[in-house]
Design a protein that fits this description.
- The chain has two domains: about 5-140, Fructose-1,6-Bisphosphatase, subunit A, domain 1 (Fructose-1,6-Bisphosphatase, Chain A, domain 1, 2-Layer Sandwich); about 150-270, D-Maltodextrin-Binding Protein, domain 2 (3-Layer(aba) Sandwich).
- Helices cover about 30% and strands about 30% of the residues.
- It contains seven helices and 15 strands.
- The chain has helices at about 5-20, 40-55, 90-95, 165-175, 185-190, 205-220, 250-260; strands at about 30-35, 35-40, 60-65, 70, 80-85, 100-105, 115-120, 125-130, 135, 140, 155, 175-180, 195-205, 225, 240-245.
């Protein structure tokens, strides 16, 4: 199976379905989907995925951001883990930083991930990873060698549930911060030395947000884990929620973890405010 060709054609189908809606109010219209409200641009993208998989007679398990987990075909041999539009708000506003993120697994576990693909439609960037390496537009990627916090450029995501003292501690130590609004692309930027690292403490990432990116980062020479330093392992579960710490190299990753005091076994709960 030529998975690169598959991902190219699948994202072509998605782009055909959503391109006229990018930057429009219609893209933000709420649509009922499986007992929840979803933006129209997300529904159009996901429907295009399902139609394509059925039209091509694919036998896969689909894990997708909006619809959850469904079986396509009769005897699925692979799992397709997909966020049809990562950076939905950017797409609605017409900001050129949103993507489709696709990962392929040969089994039912995160450890079974073998292919990653991320496409930014408006810039033409395509990130791809397989056993031969990590690539941006067919050029091999190598992650950042920056190992000094005060020189690092990183992306940081938090919500107001994170203790502000933790965020302040991070901001005081790093060089500069960027926040683009599409986690899969930002992790791809860590893989390809456009960002030195990324910290996401929100605790609401799904496997569809990060599956392609975590194998891309690792293949490019970077390091990533959850905020407790744990490797991403276990079942591919679309309902599981994650945090992520990623860096272009082990030294910078260790510095990130030191900021959070996680190398001393600090409980994740200490990073969050008491909601009582």
């Amino acid at each position: 199976m030529d998975w690169k060709f598959f991902c190219d054609r699948l994202t072509d189908a998605i782009w055909d379905a959503i391109k006229d809606k990018v930057g429009t109010e219609e893209a933000a219209m709420k649509v009922a989907r499986d007992k929840k409200s979803t933006k129209k641009i997300d529904v159009l993208a996901e429907d295009a995925v399902i139609d394509y998989l059925k039209r091509e007679n694919m036998d896969v398990t689909l894990l997708s951001e909006e619809i959850g987990e469904i079986q396509i075909g009769t005897t699925p041999k692979y799992a397709v883990i997909l966020d049809p539009v990562d950076g939905t708000t950017n797409a609605i506003k017409g900001l050129p930083f949103f993507s489709t993120s696709i990962a392929i697994a040969k089994g039912k576990k995160i450890e079974d991930l073998v292919i990653g693909y991320i496409r930014n439609y408006l810039t033409g960037e395509i990130f791809y990873v397989d056993e031969s390496g990590a690539f941006q537009n067919d050029k091999k990627c190598a992650s950042s060698s920056c190992s000094v916090l005060r020189k690092s450029l990183i992306s940081i995501y938090t919500y107001n549930n994170v203790d502000y003292r933790v965020l302040r501690r991070i901001l005081m130590k790093i060089g500069k911060m960027r926040l683009f609004g599409a986690i899969s692309l930002e992790l791809a930027y860590v893989a390809c030395n456009k960002l030195d690292g990324l910290i996401d403490l929100r605790g609401d990432l799904k496997i569809s947000d990060i599956a392609a990116s975590i194998i891309l980062v690792k293949k490019a020479g970077g390091v990533c884990s959850d905020m407790n330093g744990n490797e991403f392992t276990g079942n591919l579960d679309i309902n599981e929620k994650y945090t992520i710490i990623a860096a272009g190299n082990q030294i910078l990753y260790d510095e990130f973890m030191r900021i959070l005091d996680l190398e001393f076994g600090q409980s994740e709960n200490k990073l969050f405010l008491d909601k009582k």
